[in-house]
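#lab-general

N.A. 3:47 PM
ok so I finally got the sequence cleaned up, no stray characters, all 115 residues accounted for. can someone with queue access submit it? mine expired

B.Y. 3:52 PM
send it over

N.A. 3:53 PM
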Amino acid sequence: QVQLVEPGGGLVQAGGSLRLACAASGIIFSINTMGWYRQVPGKERELVAEISSGGSTNYADSVKGRFTISRDNAQKMVYLQMNSLKPEDTAVYYCNSRWISRSYWGQGTQVTVSS
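B.Y. 4:20 PM
back already:
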């Protein structure tokens, strides 16, 4: 059974920092591309950042220079360090694993940035 569990999230003031974590089980973690997506009500889920099995990263333009994605294959964890947070970063953040056509999602965690 595949599980992606995202503890963390929360409320932070603008300009602050937060780190999201995602614990994976039931997948061969090291071969999966891992990603963080976010969604606000009324909008489509959007890619925030992803990291390939080889460690290559890709970021949404809106978070470049502020967010950093990383992974720990031994612990089967993926992280999203979010700095210089803005109110527009407020969303539900989802962890995603992807390998070929197999894609799995976590339950999501709320991040709220107050102005």
